[in-house]
Amino acid sequence: IELSEFTVTSMDPIVVLVLLLSCLLLISLWRPTSGRRKLPPGPTPLPIIGNALQIDFKDVSKTLAEFSKVYGPVFTLYLGMKPTVVLHGYEAVKEALVDNGEEFAGRDSIPIFERCNKGLGIAFNNGKTWKEIRQFSLMSLRYLGMGKRSIEDRIQEEARCLVEELKKNNGSPCDPTFNLSSAVCNVINTTIFHNRYDYNDPCFLDLMQRLNEIFRILGSQWIQIYNTFPALINCLPGSHNILFKNVKYMQNYLLEKVKEHEESLDVNNPRDFIDYFLIKMKTEKDNQKLAFTYENLVITAFDLWIASSETTSITLKYALLLLLKYPQVTAKLQEEIQRVIGKHNSPCMQDRNHMPYTNAVLHEIHRYINLSPIGIPHSVTCDVKFRNYLIPKGTPIWISLTSVLYDNKEFPHPEIFDPHHFLDEHGKFKKSDYFIPFSSGKRKCMGESLANMELFLFLTTILQHFHLKSLVNPKDLDVTPVANGIQYLPPSYQLCFIPI
Question: What's the EC number here (predicted)?
Fold first, then answer.
């Protein structure tokens, strides 16, 4: 009798747990079924985890392409119990982001970024505050591009510094990652807080290491799990805690820069983005606008820092690999550079207008590497009727940029790197509406012009001064991207920079 009483008593919590789990299962089964009737079609989700087991989080774009063959250009996936609508193909993407731009201009609430940015800044903000900050930031960057010390001047100077660093290798094999990352990071440093660092500066090396660690962790499967079950993962040890520590450190670093700027601020002679923001704070202090605060300044600057550093350096690294793989393309580039710019003149953005082949190559680099296959998820700002479906307000929207950049009707043989995708029969540059590596619509990446400027000025300056030599036969070079969930990265490689 004593044994049976003990068993029943000890089982009570387990019975309760089983009942709770059963209720959760029933709820999860009922909710998707009732909501799916109005949403676009899609694979049947499992209780609680949704379609998570059917998605290859290392290469999400590939999974989306397979689903689109079954369910069409607009379909629904469940990440956990949360529905996400996917747009696949040019027509669906254009209809949403351009024709219905306002309704699809929301930003999905991503737990890892909510924790880091608190809904402030540019990238993960929404509503009126986001519009004000984005408009102000675009205007400030435009002013910085036209001032006495323009962004183009800063990039040209950094390109010359990069060339000097590359010369130190004396034509020996090297991995270009560090030098490219340092050059790009210095451009955004001078733009945001007026500091350029020597590539061996200890403070700079520490910042670079933290940036690299942030992106490495963001691309891990652990963060995918975190975003699906944030309440649970927050209580556990893991790499997310290292990410939060690094983000906090870098935001505190920016706050120190803000304090330094306040002490030396000249409202008649703004030096950088922080100065422009501080001046705006002064002019808006009586209006009590919540958008222009110290906290929003730090997080906005951090957004710009993050968005403008890693992505451009990866693009440059991938670009050099493609130029190694296709030496005939490199030879044509160098011929055009020599003819239009010469050997001793610093490349400038006006030169690009007279360089159709170079322009086509740069566009093809962006298209081919397809750096961010689905971009940053959007959300709808209100209940939206889209193609006879009803998408509730706040529903996340995934945009398959791959499906547009690799459209085989617009780009014959899209899996092949071919600058002629952007050249007409007369060798003149040809634009394409399908060229959307920076996304499209109201959430289009605001750093597009800066990234394009850096890619042109850095690459042309490098090719002015060096021949690129592969360590293996170019035909044997592997240019297959390494998918890490959020980006396509180039495989590791080395090359020799042979001075001309």
Answer: 1.14.14.1
